[in-house]
Amino acid sequence: MAAIERVARRTGMDGLSIDAVAREAGISKSSVLYDCGNKSALLAEFIRYRLETYSRNCDEARTRYQGQSNPSFRAMIENHRTAPTDEEMSVAMLICAGAGKDANCREIMREKITEDTQRVIDESADKNRILQAFLALHGLAFLEYFGFCHFDEGIRNQLLDDLMSIAENDHGDRPAGA
């Protein structure tokens, strides 16, 4: 996966190829073809890999909120406490470019976003309010990951604290005060 990322960063999505990834990884083209099949599948595997990494981070954070209201949404908020690095912004651009060019990649992203959205809604009592907060979190992430707006740490944390307050005060399936 690192070879895919290095090639795409260096050459852009148009320069991403089975040959280039094989050379970068120091393996044969047939090995890459065996694992991925074609450029589209190569990109799809990269997107899956990055989404699985994000999911593992959220799963780890979610364990800290088990037994509390909205553990999934709280975990997502926690994962956005730090501004994205240049590397993370670059990866986001690669994924966006791939999803823009490939229906399979768009579907992978759509499935993950739908899954996350449904999980957050299912855990909440006030589904409309939590959905608004979820969309606000993703809007903040979008603005920062694509370099449109950078919030200083104090402002970001205040925004995230406000979203966390919404999650904390929505008692989901738990009775109030539990």
What features would you describe in this structure?
- The protein has 178 residues and is an all-alpha fold.
- It has 9 helices and no strands.
- It starts with a helix and ends in a 9-residue tail after the last helix.
- The relative contact order is 0.12.
- Residues 174-178 have low confidence and may be disordered.
Tell me the overall shape.
elongated
Question: Approximately how much beta-strand content do the residues carry?
Answer: under 5%
Distance between the termini: 44 Å
Number of helices: 9
- Any low-confidence stretches, pLDDT <50, length ≥5? 174-178
The helix-and-strand class reads: mainly alpha
Q: Helix amount, in percent?
A: over 70%
Main beta sheet: none
**How large is the radius of gyration?**
19 Å
Spell the H/E element sequence.
Answer: HHHHHHHHH
Key features of this structure:
single chain, 178 residues, mainly alpha, 74% helix, elongated, disordered C terminus
Secondary structure elements and pairings:
Layout: H1 2-11, H2 18-25, H3 29-36, H4 39-63, H5 71-79, H6 86-101, H7 103-122, H8 127-145, H9 153-169
Helix pairs in contact: 1-2, 2-3, 4-5, 4-7, 5-9, 6-7, 7-8, 8-9
Outline of this structure?
This protein has 178 residues and is mainly alpha-helical.
